[in-house]
């Protein structure tokens, strides 16, 4: 089976995981990550969401409103709530799936503390519009959510550098991975020092047991994405038997992983160092695959293709369709898993009917609602074989 995602792992990550640890493993990863992102500071966390919680706390935000997209990963508003702030949701725009920045001024109040600008699916947020908002409201912090995009660029400008800080996720579904983990980057020396101090106070050291769990998880990933094995796992996943392991949220709860207050382990940092060396080739391959799909699928009326944007990093390739379930079933019969990414509009979830605040009415999320039901994920991972991509294209063309 061709999986919907596949981390770019080989023997080098396994060797790194088995290498005797050094005291400075995490620091070396932070320094290398900062260099790759072109920033002065990079600070590790066990998850990107943990980084966001402490980032908001380090900014001194409490009982404030934090603006974020209605169509994004639900862990973002979860982190806002855990930091004792309230998410305010803004609808998306269809052309690139990002938050509609034209609507942001409508929800800004005296209580607004920050805006989280997500470059979803690797599409860079419009920095021109974001700059205009920041000029008008200079006291509102801009935070870049680069969990999908990493070093995406808007008209040659690195997205991650525009704002007080940027957050990243590093699990196996991201552009690059450290098994689990998250990162915050910033060019603000004073803020970096404050965030590091807060992290070291709030987070417990990673124990040997955590390193062992991460190693076992890494070892399990290798056979998991082998075609025959993945076919079995996919069947178990669709049956609901793996929800405990693969579903990252409960619609009725605002929660966090049990170890969200434990520091990144050294083994994760060593794997991350190997992945950083692959980063450029990973992004280059994804850009080539996005262009391949665009060239070969543009004439299919049933698909509304995502845009090809200069500077995008294409964490996912996400066409829109009229009947998602029908297409998913069709491809499963051909041993191709398409899947979807974000199958919810956050303000409509049970856990946010009370938690969120919004100046908008229920119709204001109509684009986010639409995207949550009509997007599919065509495999675009870096090591997908040409014949596999050609097979996917052939199946799309078949009626």
Automatic annotation (TrEMBL):
Membership in a protein family: Belongs to the DegT/DnrJ/EryC1 family.
InterPro entries for the chain: DegT/StrS_aminotransferase, PyrdxlP-dep_Trfase, PyrdxlP-dep_Trfase_major, PyrdxlP-dep_Trfase_small
Modified residues (N6-(pyridoxal phosphate)lysine): 174
Active-site residues per Swiss-Prot or TrEMBL entry: 174 (proton acceptor)
Coiled coil: none
Gene3D superfamilies: Aspartate Aminotransferase, domain 1, Type I PLP-dependent aspartate aminotransferase-like (Major domain)
Keyword Repeat on entry: no
Source organism of this protein record: Candidatus Thiomargarita nelsonii
GO MF annotation, one: pyridoxal phosphate binding
Keywords noted in UniProt: Pyridoxal phosphate
Domain of life: Bacteria
Gene Ontology terms: biological process: polysaccharide biosynthetic process
Protein name: DegT/DnrJ/EryC1/StrS aminotransferase
Phylogenetic lineage: Bacteria, Pseudomonadati, Pseudomonadota, Gammaproteobacteria, Thiotrichales
């Amino acid at each position: 089976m061709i999986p919907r995602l596949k981390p770019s792992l080989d023997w080098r990550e396994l060797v790194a995981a088995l290498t005797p640890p050094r005291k400075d493993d995490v620091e070396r990863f932070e320094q290398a990550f900062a260099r790759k992102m072109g920033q002065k500071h990079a600070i590790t966390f066990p998850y990107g969401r943990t980084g966001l919680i402490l980032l908001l706390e380090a900014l001194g935000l409490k009982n404030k409103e934090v603006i974020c997209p209605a169509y994004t990963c639900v862990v973002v508003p979860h982190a806002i709530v855990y930091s004792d702030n309230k998410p305010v949701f803004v609808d998306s725009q269809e052309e690139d799936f990002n938050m509609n920045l034209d609507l942001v001024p409508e929800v800004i109040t005296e209580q607004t503390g920050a805006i989280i600008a997500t470059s979803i699916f690797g599409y860079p947020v419009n920095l021109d519009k974001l700059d205009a908002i920041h000029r008008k409201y200079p006291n509102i912090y801009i935070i870049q959510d680069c969990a999908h995009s990493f070093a995406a660029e808007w008209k040659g400008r690195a997205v991650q550098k525009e704002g007080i800080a940027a957050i990243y996720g590093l699990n196996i579904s991201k552009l690059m991975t450290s098994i689990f983990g998250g990162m915050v980057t910033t060019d603000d020396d004073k803020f970096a020092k404050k965030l590091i101090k807060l992290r070291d106070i709030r987070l417990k050291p990673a124990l040997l047991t955590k390193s062992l769990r991460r190693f076992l998880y890494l070892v399990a990933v290798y056979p998991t994405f082998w075609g025959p094995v993945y076919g079995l796992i996919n069947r178990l996943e669709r049956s609901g038997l793996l929800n405990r392991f693969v579903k990252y949220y409960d619609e009725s709860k605002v929660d966090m992983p049990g170890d969200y207050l434990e520091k990144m382990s050294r083994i994760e940092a060593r794997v991350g160092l190997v992945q950083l060396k692959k980063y450029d080739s990973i992004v280059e391959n994804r850009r080539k695959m996005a262009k391949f799909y665009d060239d070969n699928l543009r004439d299919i009326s049933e698909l509304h293709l995502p845009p090809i944007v200069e500077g995008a990093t294409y964490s996912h390739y996400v066409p829109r369709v009229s009947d998602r379930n029908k297409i998913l079933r069709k491809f499963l019969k051909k041993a191709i898993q398409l899947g979807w990414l974000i199958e919810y509009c956050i303000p409509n979830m049970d856990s946010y009917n009370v938690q969120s605040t919004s100046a908008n009415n229920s119709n204001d999320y109509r684009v986010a609602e639409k995207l949550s039901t009509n997007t599919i994920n065509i495999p675009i991972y870096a090591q997908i074989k040409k014949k596999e991509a050609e097979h996917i294209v052939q199946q799309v063309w078949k009626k």
